[in-house]
Amino acid sequence: MTSSVATSDQRGELGALLDRHRVELTGYCYRMLGSAFEAEDAVQETMLRAWRYYDRYDGRASLRSWLYRIATNVSLDALEGRKRRARPMDLGPAQTADNFALGEPLPDAVWVQPVLDGQVLPASGDPAEVAVARESIRLAFVAALQHLPPRQRAVLILREVLRWRASEVAELLGTSVASVNSALQRARATLEASDVTSADSVQTVRMDDEELQKLLARYVDAFERYDMDALVALLHEDATLSMPPYALWVHGPAEIATWMSGPGIGCAGSLLVPVGVNGSPAFGQYRRDPAGGHVAFALQVIEIADGAVTAINAFLDTEKMFPFAGLPLRRD
């Protein structure tokens, strides 16, 4: 079938074949690029190239492998000459009550951005594979991936998240198995230095776990009542609070409570609405509007470990994030 003579039925068949891989390709591009919006653009470009050059597809590799090759090339092109995306914790030390200063917002391109679960996670499948997929889109893991050179990043994702064989990755990248294995070892060493484990050794947290749901219910209750004592009791001793697009971040339960009781006191009376983001518990936060009702304030992505909240990541670009997450900007 060539693009010039394809019938409408053939075009529809090809479109359906390509679309079957959209979610997993979006997950791959998100891990590579650190932005849900850039990942969507990359997958769209991948689909356009696949459509345009389908007559050159010779069937020697599977359609899935061919699409991953295109997506890898698109992602590597997008990353060329670009600074890595980061989290506030990557840019400088934590601030304390002695020098709290929000500062100026930084451009979107600086930050690792959140992604909706539905964009990148399969709706069904092998539970172990779904668990690895969920863990490998955690903010901490995606941020750690950004420390890797782009080709090492692709190797680690393909080998340890997607479970490709070294020979398959070598063929995709047009290199040798020895080169792939060497890149994987260097990538692992970089992640270990970043204190983030590879996806294959992460202990997953089941989102239906009863204790987890109890913890989240207590978090919502404490936050909506703005009870700092109750909130602090849920925080890990190394918990962090960050607020992209600002570089400020706060470390430790006492400092977080001081921030929230001082500069962040406007969050008192907020409502939290659950949403699935980055394989983690997440909430759309609405602050009370003096004119009535509540207005969008932050997309909170909550990280949990050892039975406690380890991070509150509050993304403040609600004009962009809330419509993306299917959340209204107001609740009356």
Automatic annotation (TrEMBL):
Superkingdom of the source species? Bacteria
Which CDD domains would you find in this protein's record? Answer: Sigma70_r4
In terms of SUPFAM superfamilies, this protein maps to: NTF2-like (SSF54427), Sigma2 domain of RNA polymerase sigma factors (SSF88946), Sigma3 and sigma4 domains of RNA polymerase sigma factors (SSF88659)
Residues annotated as domain RNA polymerase sigma-70 region: 17-85
Which GO molecular function terms does the record list? Answer: DNA binding; sigma factor activity
Gene3D superfamilies hit by this protein: 1.10.1740.10, 3.10.450.50, Winged helix-like DNA-binding domain superfamily/Winged helix DNA-binding domain
Instruction: Tell me which positions the record assigns to the signal sequence.
Output: none
Recorded hits in InterPro entries, A to Z, give: NTF2-like_dom_sf, RNA_pol_sigma-70-like, RNA_pol_sigma-70_dom, RNA_pol_sigma-G_actinobac, RNA_pol_sigma70_r2, RNA_pol_sigma70_r4_t2, RNA_pol_sigma_r2, RNA_pol_sigma_r3/r4-like
In this protein, which residues make up the domain named RNA polymerase sigma factor 70 region 4 type? Answer: 139-191
Keyword Nucleotide-binding present in the record's keywords: the answer is no
Q: Name one GO biological process term.
A: DNA-templated transcription initiation
Keywords attached to this Swiss-Prot or TrEMBL record, sorted alphabetically, are: Sigma factor, Transcription, Transcription regulation
Enumerate the spans annotated as SnoaL-like domain.
217-309
Q: Which family does it belong to?
A: Belongs to the sigma-70 factor family. ECF subfamily.
- What PANTHER family would the database entry show? ECF RNA POLYMERASE SIGMA FACTOR SIGG, RNA POLYMERASE ECF-TYPE SIGMA FACTO
Q: How does it assemble?
A: Interacts transiently with the RNA polymerase catalytic core formed by RpoA, RpoB, RpoC and RpoZ (2 alpha, 1 beta, 1 beta' and 1 omega subunit) to form the RNA polymerase holoenzyme that can initiate transcription.
Name this polypeptide is given = RNA polymerase sigma-70 factor (ECF subfamily)
Source organism (scientific name) = Actinopolymorpha rutila
